[in-house]
Design goal:
Strand content: 15-25%
Largest sheet: 6 strands, mixed
Helix content: 40-55%
Number of helices: 12
Radius of gyration: 19 Å
Order of helices and strands: EHEEEEEEEHHEHHHHHHHHH
Length: about 300
Amino acid sequence: MQVFSHCQDAIEECARTRRFAVAHLRSDEKPRHMHIHDCLEIYYSMSGDKQFVVEDKLYDADPGDLFVVNPFEAHRPVCAEGAAHERMIVCIHPEYLQSLSTPDTDLSACFFRRPAGFSHRVMLTESERTDFTMLLRRLSAPQGFGSDLLQNSCFVELMVLVNGLYFERHGDLGAAPNPHANERAADILTYLNERITQPVSIDTVAEAFYLSRGYVCRLFKEATGTTINKYVVARRISVAKRLLSEGKTVHEACEQSGFGDYAHFIRAFGQAVGISPKQYALGEGRRPSSGPAKGPTP
């Protein structure tokens, strides 16, 4: 199996094969802006990550940290300035993952069936890192007869490992520590998400926190690696995807997700998701129903 050197290539391969694809990214592949896509994503930090943003959560990121992100969650890595940046990404088609699941083992559980107060991050031990990278190497090893079956088997083993580690750590979070690395940036993220479907601007954020417009912009960009405007657009697209998957019309999704301009919504959605809202509403990229399957036992 080919290991891609660009994230977008892996996303497109995942969409084309409707299975999974792996990308091994280094410093020459610049981190993407706040974005969403129609595949599930496992992000494995190897070096150079500073933080990882998912929706309204800002995590510290260290080598060996693993993040699980579903298609409805806007996200982006924030790399340390001047550091070599290396990471691996596994893009997974939701229908493929469901096809490998059983009534007792839902392999998509770590993406969709999370407990209250969940975290997107799993901090791996040295031995767990070895197990994870070994499985990724086996997935990409050249194979002959029966390679598709062997890849399926190895991929199932990988997903059992990821889900097992996730629910071992987060099966019962209780009073988990706040994952936000920067309290003020976290407060701004919370403020934005509470008003994501309402008119909101940099000026309103600055007024709410009694800060200057320029300082708010610098603070947010330093903490998240993106601008307030780009973050708001990405989050609204995430909301729109959810509304479309629930059967709302394109116009309803536009209005209820907070976009005030229909043309801007169509353009922004297409750029972020890769297809139009109408195509998405017709079923492309939807995650399948999880049914009665149970999550892994911690």
